[in-house]
Design brief:
The chain has about 400 residues and is mostly helical. The protein is built from 16 helices and 3 strands. A hairpin with a 5-residue loop joins strand 1 and strand 2. Helix 15 runs antiparallel to helix 16. The chain starts with 7 loop residues before the first strand and ends with a helix.
Length: about 400
């Protein structure tokens, strides 16, 4: 079988049907194919050449494609196809509404593949870094069943809800981290810039400093002398940890287990994992995917190693004929309410509907937990900042107060 030529990026300039000058980028195996594609779009190409390679050794050209871009694309495609717009034309219309040039090129690349006779799912599978296996499988099921518009609508809804859930969890985690980081920066600035000024003044007193003031002065001297090595060590630890997380599955699994045991954040992570489990399983099962296959897809989407292993355990037991709610109960990680709703769904033949209700409930639980956590963290962080910054200032002014009382 002949090897298919690899697509490369071309930049082009030309005129549209109205005689207006237009330009853009298009991928294709060679210049002749790109010119033919432009003519099919009603564009008379005047200049076509290979796109210049980006600087910095092959870094991605243009803006990075974010998960929000993929979610927006999925929703727009679902809307276009539901409105009766042909698939190839849908790609073009959606592409015109995208600001990110990298995402626009991705869409046009998929359009070219579909226009060449490939199905939508095959075009998605060409970009596994952007479209996960679950999305590709659902789209493939929709094409085979002749219900692509309905399936894309389900995929879009699933992605929107999943991204909303991720955003809430990131908000809960990010707020205290950002605030404490700012507090650390302010503290270092005080120790490096403000405390030495007071220290020079205290030296002229010629008397022994109070213990709190002496402690702050000692810390200030240490930070001034060793801030660069300390910053290097901290940066090294962070970078090493991130690289280890990327390369070591065992480390990622251990971090997931520790996260579930953390106070406050553990409960939030647990609810988020249950919500993702119910949402993904509801979507895949309603799409007609067999339960055992659906559970395999769910295992990779729950976002936590403990729940991934639990879902795989449930899948193994369901494959041997065990009812799912019994298998879920035996794992010990699923809330009783979810197990009971699964049981009702299995008995009534409405498993997808009951899981959808469970997903909605736990998504709301995560939302409420984030709001409650934010409300609780705000006064705690303000108190912490008051103690740290206020303590530094009091320690610095304590000798002056003692001198005033001795006079």
């Amino acid at each position: 079988m002949a090897k298919q030529p690899k697509n490369v990026e071309f930049v082009w300039e030309g005129k549209n049907k109205r005689g207006q000058k237009v330009k853009g980028e298009l991928s294709g195996p060679n210049m002749a194919v790109v010119k033919a594609q432009l003519r099919k779009q009603g564009i008379s190409p005047e200049k076509v050449k290979r796109a210049p390679k980006p600087l910095m050794g092959g870094a991605a050209k243009g803006k990075k494609i974010k998960t929000a871009d993929i979610t927006f694309f999925t929703r727009q495609m679902a809307t276009m196809i539901k409105a009766g717009v042909p698939l190839v034309q849908s790609f073009e219309i959606v592409s015109d509404g995208i600001d990110n040039p990298t995402m626009r090129n991705l869409i046009m690349g998929m359009r070219d593949k579909v226009a060449a006779g490939n199905d939508f799912a095959s075009a998605l599978k060409e970009y596994p870094q952007y479209f996960d296996e679950l999305t590709c499988n659902l789209v493939e099921s929709g094409e085979q069943a002749g219900a692509l518009e309905a399936m894309l609508d389900r995929v879009a809804e699933y992605k929107e809800k999943t991204e909303a859930l991720k955003s809430k969890v990131k908000k809960a985690m990010g707020y205290p981290i950002a605030t404490l980081s700012i507090a650390a920066i302010v503290t270092v600035v005080l120790l490096v810039k403000v405390v030495p000024t007071f220290e020079a003044m205290f030296t002229s007193f010629g008397s022994e400093l109070p213990a709190p003031t002496q402690f702050v002065v000692d810390v200030s001297e240490f930070v001034q002398a060793y801030w660069l090595p300390v910053a290097g060590v901290i940066a090294g630890i962070i970078i090493t940890f991130k690289e280890a997380m990327k390369r070591s599955a065992a480390l990622r699994d251990n971090v997931d287990r520790i996260t579930l045991k953390m106070p406050i954040f553990g409960d939030l992570t647990r609810k988020a994992a249950v919500a993702r489990f119910a949402r993904v399983l509801s979507t895949t099962f309603a799409a007609g995917v067999p339960l055992v296959e659906a559970l395999e897809s769910v295992a990779g989407a729950v976002g936590n190693a403990v729940y991934r292993d639990a879902v795989l355990s449930v899948r193994s037991e369901v494959a041997t004929g065990q009812q799912m709610h019994f298998a879920m109960r035996s794992t010990g990680v699923f809330p009783n309410m979810v197990v009971q709703m699964t049981s009702i769904g299995e008995e009534s033949g409405a498993l997808d509907g009951m899981l959808d209700k469970a997903a909605t409930y736990y998504e709301q639980e995560v939302d409420d937990a984030v709001d409650g956590l934010t409300a609780m963290m705000e006064p705690l962080i303000m108190a912490f900042l008051g103690v740290v910054v206020g303590g530094l200032l009091i320690a610095m002014y304590l000798p002056i107060f003692q001198m005033g009382s001795a006079m």
